[in-house]
Amino acid sequence: MNPLITTGAAAHATPTALSVNLNKVAWLRNARALDRPSVTHAATVALEAGAHGITVHPRPDQRHIRTQDVHDLARLMKAWPQTEFNVEGNPHHNLMELARELVGRGLPLHQLTFVPDSVEQATSDHGWQLPQDGERLAPLIEAAHALGARVSLFMDPLPDVMAAAAALGADRVELYTEAYARAHGTPQQAEVLARYSAAGEAARRAGLALNAGHDLNRDNLTDFLRAVPGVREVSIGHALIADALELGLAKTVRDYVRCIHRADMPEAPRR
């Protein structure tokens, strides 16, 4: 079994790992019948620039990441043993089949992030409902563990349900951060951040490690990590790829890593 399931520790030097989501690279590639831009090349650039992992969220309709991409990226990740491959998706759709294929071929799979998205959704927009979804999730979490993968549940920032997530056998929760991103820079920021901080604390008390993702960017990432300590991983795609159009992918990845490091530095006093 993957030791990361029980320790929750990732092999990286920074306190929070940056996992680069490549869905938007694949979405652009799919606009033409060409392999340009290359998803595997983008992953290589990101990892060389200091990313700690790669995330993909393959949908059943393969609107962006295709099944072949998942396999190609897993093969690439074998050359980066200090990094992690995180595959997201709805375990009631195509996710578990992909996971079994990767493990069956001896390819790396470090984390499965279970997301309750519907087939027609443009993007993830809510977390799992517990305890309602628990009965269906428990055997899937067990199956993922049998494959050697850590399981993270995509969750809204609700402190009261974190113990239920832990009781199902999940290893981590990924806090759905769109509400925070929308509030950042507004008078509601402190109130919204307090909800995330409380949810993170409840998760840790329940024995869960913390991930976070959705609409995090260079402007709001540091503030989030300061307010919600102990986040093990952030997976960032849309904003990061948008920034890369202006700055280049390698420079953008380095900037996001700097945002993570700044969270550990004393905050400058406000004037």
Describe this structure in words.
This protein has one domain (15-262): Aldolase class I (TIM Barrel), CATH 3.20.20. Helix content is 42%, strand content 15%. It has helices at 4-7, 23-29, 39-48, 67-77, 95-104, 134-146, 162-167, 178-183, 189-205, 221-227, 238-247, 249-262; strands at 17-21, 53-56, 84-89, 111-114, 150-155, 172-176, 209-213, 231-236. An eight-stranded parallel beta barrel has the order 1-2-3-4-5-6-7-8, surrounded by six helices. The N and C termini lie far apart (52 Å).
Properties at a glance:
8 strands, 12 helices, 271 residues, 15% strand, TIM Barrel, single chain, 42% helix
CATH architecture: Alpha-Beta Barrel
Q: What is the multimeric organization of the chains shown?
A: single chain
CATH class: Alpha Beta
DSSP strand tally: 8
Backbone shape: globular
**Which strand order does the major sheet show?**
1-2-3-4-5-6-7-8
What fold name stands as the CATH topology?
TIM Barrel
User: What fraction of residues sit in β-strands?
Assistant: 15-25%
Biggest sheet record: 8 strands, parallel, barrel
Classification by helices and strands: alpha/beta
Level of helix content? 40-55%
Number of domains: 1
Fourth CATH level, the homologous superfamily? Aldolase class I
